Amino acid sequence: MKNFFLFLLIAAIIAGMSYGVYKYFFDYEQTYIDDVVAEGALVYVKASAIKDNIDRIGATKLWKEISKVDYRSLMKEAGADKKQIMMADLIISQLGSKNTKHILEYFFNDEVALLIYPSDLDLSKISDFSADTAAMVIEKLLTNVALVFRVGEEVQFVDAISQIFNNFGAKIERGQIKHNNHTLYVIKVPDLGLEINYAKIDDVIIAGIGDVVAKRSYEVLDGKIPPLSKDARFTQASEKFTLGSDLEIYLNINKSLDLLHAQARSLVTLIGQQTQKAIKEDDEGGDAKKLQENVSLAQSRVDEFFKQLAGFNSVAASTKWEGIYESNFFLFFDKAQLSAEVAKTYACPASENKSINFIPEDVVVYQWANCLDLADIWGQMQKQIDNLPNADAQSAQIAAIEQSLGINIKDDIIPTFAGEFGGYLKGINVGFLFPIPDLLLFIETKDRVKANRLMDIIIKQAPLEIKQENYSGSEFKYFITPFGEAIQPSYCFLGSHLLISASKDSIKKSIDAYNETSLSLVSNPGFRSVNIGLTDINRGVQFVSMDKFIKEIRSVINWVNVQSSTRDEKQLAFKRGVEMKLTETRGALEELKNEVSALEKDYTKLEDEIWDIESIGTDVSEKRAELKALDQKIKDKKNDVATLAGQESELKINIEELGKEYVAQNLRKQLMDKAAFPILNGLESIKAVGTRFTIDQNKGFIESNMYVDIDE
Questions:
Q1: Which residues of the chain register pLDDT less than 70?
Q2: How far apart are the C-alpha atoms of 701 and 706, rounded to whole Å?
Q3: Helices and strands (H, E) in the chain, number of each type
Q4: Burial of 213 by CB count in 10 Å (0-12 exposed, 13-18 middle, 19+ buried)?
Q5: Residue 289 burial (CB < 10 Å; 0-12/13-18/19+)?
Q6: Domains of the chain by residue range
Q7: What is the pTM for the complete model shown?
Q8: How many CB atoms neighbour CB 412 within 10 A?
Q9: Which of 193, 420, 479, 553 is found 20 to 30 A from 73 (Cα to Cα)?
């Protein structure tokens, strides 16, 4: 029987332990940050897995190359003194110190969030501008900022705070206050006049300057005010956060704009009141009335500005790095509240990207958009012209151009083209006097026949020979230029698109891609790696083959360096020539000064001789003539000395200026070798970047996504 009871006891213990393990590891209800902070936040930024991501960034080639930047050499070349370099060393050593790492690891190891709430500040209640007023405004704003951490023991939090202020030589005082059956923790820094209050709810600490945000979180816990997770705008935005995101950002644009609008009006009123005080009571010139008119005008302009921003509700953005780095952005709007001009911009729907079919596989940069409205652009231009002082002359000039071409912009050009437009870059040719991009632009046509006729009219105006060629079943035309095949402006039609390129090679590549999908961009490995919706229905798409793009930038920088080196060598040779001239001038100047000194001695000797001769009554007229000639010779020599001294001074100034240029040249070289090139080396680890932009008019949001393929 005893064995039986012992068996039951052991079974009960095992069952209890199993239940405890299950509850701890599998049935643990985590306290979410947005459940313990109050609704109504203007800004919400939450970062997760910070330490892991910092470690990951530190392991990338990009960061390793950036770490090679020799800041000390660059500062020295830029003219920084020893104290400035020592200060930079101190800051960097502090950032890498054990204390700093400990603090960062504590606060930013798991989750941290920053929230900004509306302030009850009313600028219209401010009576004067002063340092005290500025301090009051800053304090008011900061008391509505919350910093939220997910941490371990509360004592560790206080220890970490202590370390931060100890590093600056400030001591802290700790205390506790009871607030509605909760403990409000207080940290005071008397030396700085600073008081931090924080609330602790499970493993979440909500801290802020003053007690506003901490008390507010306890009120959320008691159910007195709703949490942020129940905020309608935040809920709408948070649904768009990427699952498992490392960074989440929410902005309440509608509320922020309302507050800014009210404060802007208050500020205008306040400035008016302050100006009013400076106006004398015997206001014979009517300044008070003019001031009131100006205040009213300023407020109406403020109202008009914010009216243009009406209708935008909130922003949701998030990032995630899991294989591909992904960044998502959503802008929510109320179409009914948008201004007419803004609503027109968002009226264009997303569509299929037909240009992708003729984009070559090896492009460096590609961009496409679908909402080019030539009629609207022309209308805006016409309004701008009508507002010019010489509007009639400008309109007459446009009419003259239309007449000479035999076309009408409004009737012939605008109706011919549709909304799709874009282009791509295949590379940059640095084999000429200056870098020339190998660029192709395209635009969709509504009427290909009419578009072809327009192109025929335009190219006839060019003073270059034009030829036509048939390539793989498609005809294209190109200009013969003195620069050879590298620069042969060309154009052709593929499907409903007009393509215009700087070289016929790009036209041929587009024709190849159009005829064979395997030669088009969709076959590019880099494009495929970031093609997450880039070929779906969109309003805009961009793609950058980043490693190729960096190589093109490097080739341009190398071209600039070669050109600069040639110029630098010429300037250095010129500087050496000036220095030789200065040496010669100084030698001649010294020789002249010696001559003047010798002549002055001869002058003194002759004067003494004349005195002696005169004392015995002998005629000295010849001697005096000789003295006069010697005096003139001395004056001429002194003029020559002054002239050479002026030349010496001018040459010294020239050498000083040339020396500054040499320092700048050397700094540029150092920046290239020790900063730009290491950073470019790191950026080559980014294989590809793809972005897409679209709009959902029914649900009322704009969506933008960016995808980055990073070689880790």
A1: 1-29, 71, 74, 77-80, 89-109, 122-136, 152-170, 273-289, 291, 659-668
A2: 17
A3: 22, 20
A4: buried
A5: exposed
A6: 33-251, 554-683
A7: 0.78
A8: 17
A9: 553
